[in-house]
Amino acid sequence: MDEFVTLTYRGKEVKLPLVTGSEGEKAIDISRLRAETGLITLDPGYANTGSCLSAITFMDGEKGILRYRGIPVEQLAEKASFKETAYLLINGRLPNRDELTQLSVRLNDHSLVHTDLKAFYQNFPRASHPMGILSSMVNAMKSFYPELDTLEEEINITVTRLLAKVRTMAAMSYKISRGHEIVLPRPDLTYCENFLNMMFDTPVTPYEIKREAVNALRVFWILHADHEQNCSTSSVRMVGSARVNLYTAISTGIAALWGPLHGGANQAVIEMLDNIHNNGGDCTKIIQRAKDKNDPFRLMGFGHRVYKTYDPRAKIMKKMCDNLLAAIQITDPLLDTAKELEEMTLKDPYFIDHNLYPNIDFYSGIILRAIGIPTNMFTVMFAIGRLPGWIAQWKESMDDPNWKISRPRQIYTGHQQYDYVPIHAR
Ligand code: SDX
Which end of the chain is less enclosed by CB atoms within 10 A, N or C? Predict the structure, then answer.
């Protein structure tokens, strides 16, 4: 039975249909609102506004649930490869053995980067942030790979190129930033092994690919792979709605993710923990700052627009910190600081009342440090993980027959009309 809500405005009753999702979520379809009432809605930050119907990722913020195409992220983190997860998000189902083999072959065949693209790196200032470089390089890919005949063929090859080359480009930017020779991808290594090898192998000190580090990277990327309509994904959809090419849409997602309130938080968390640790390890001051209404400081790695309970991804990350550090027999004082900070917030009424819990970025940096990733590359690692999700969301919006260019409205609060004043009279 169709459900609807009734809006009464200036004596007129307007019935607005309700849309119900497969998990029972409901939304008011306001597509007729302005035509029927002359009214629009206003929702800064879109906290109460759905932008689309999507079958890719389901989140329940109150229960701390996250599923990719219906599969709980906990199961994928335990059993799947990152390639399988990317295939699942983009194609809507897990690949069979042949499909997975074909994907591996395609990713290998397209894992090299055009030699002229390498020249771009030489012209970035040495201190450039890797996220700024990556966003520019991905956008530049459009210039190197002309369109193919059919849209279907074009999209498929572009998806493969992005998944195969973004990982290589990230490792290249690290090597070049250190003045090291670039290490090329190898056909005998898996997706995660190849990245670590391209990052850390050198001609004089061959990199030993450790199983624990590969597994930690696999889980890290799976946990970052998609998260419904977050800021960077919404940016990809918004830019994609203008029917721009996929490289440029992904470049927009990288740019949005760079923000410290979004993907940039994983770097900000480590800098915050480092600061606490270097100043005697006292967490009380930073917690006071986070609670101070007059201080714009936010406790990095805490809070979430959707999760009002513990981020399920943070739970997995926290457990993986302990397992990874024990397996590779290292300790990290910042993990102890992180656990102490979390302990204090879980008992603090401010954090309890505001539903502020650790999010994915709170423990993820500890894992990246243990693997040897430099702090300024943390958000690049997030971007490589999120890439399949961005691609899946972009494809879903392109395939939507009802999709149209995104163009929100506004409520104008500026001057009412007045006439131009000539310069001599001002
Ligand atoms: C990611 O959307 C996604 O799914 C994102 C992501 C993904 O996978 O794509 O999950 C990845 O971006 C995770 C978030 C990483 N960012 C951080 O860790 C930065 C710190 N967090 C905050 O900036 C904040 O919690 C946000 C940005 C994550 C969410 O902000 P909201 O939903 O806009 O919440 P808000 O700013 O309106 O805050 C609501 C209240 C405010 O207090 P009141 O004015 O109501 O009294 O909670 C307070 C805020 O002051 N608050 C915090 C806080 N986060 C919110 N206070 C102190 N420290 C914090 N971290």
Answer: N
Helix, strand, coil percent values for the chain (each to nearest 5): 55, 5, 40
8-state DSSP, 335: H
* Marked catalytic residue, from 110, 226, 304, 332: 304
With b meaning 16 or more CB within 10 Å and e meaning fewer, what string describes 147-184? eeeeeeebbeebbbbbbbbbbbbbbbbbbbbeeeeebe
pTM: 0.96
**Tens of pLDDT along the chain (426 residues)?**
789 999 999 999 999 999 999 999 999 999 999 999 999 999 999 999 999 999 999 999 999 999 999 999 999 999 999 999 999 999 999 999 999 999 999 999 999 999 998 889 889 998 899 999 999 999 999 999 877 666 778 889 999 999 999 999 999 999 999 999 999 999 999 999 999 999 999 999 999 999 999 999 999 999 999 999 999 999 999 999 999 999 999 999 999 999 999 999 999 999 999 999 999 989 999 999 999 999 999 999 999 999 999 999 999 999 999 999 999 999 999 999 999 999 999 999 999 999 999 999 999 999 999 999 999 999 999 999 999 999 999 999 999 998 899 999 999 999 999 999 999 999
Q: Counting atoms of ligand 1 from 1, which one is nearest the CA of 59?
A: 4
Q: Are 182 and 176 in contact (CB under 8 A)?
A: yes
Length of the chain: 426
- Residues 221 and 85: their CA atoms lie apart, in Å, by 9
Alpha carbons 287 and 231: distance in angstroms, whole number: 26
CB 313 within 8 A of CB 73: yes
Q: Give the atom of ligand 1 at the shortest distance from the alpha carbon of 269.
A: 18
> What residue has token string 């996929």?
246
Pair 53, 40: CB distance under 8 Å = no
Identity of the amino acid at 190: T
- Which of 148, 160, 119 lies closest to 136 in space, CA to CA? 119
β-sheet bridge partners, residue 14: 7
Asked about 400 being catalytic, the answer comes back as no
Give residues (CB < 6 A) around ligand 1.
Answer: 45, 227, 230, 261-263, 265, 290, 298-306, 354, 356, 359-361
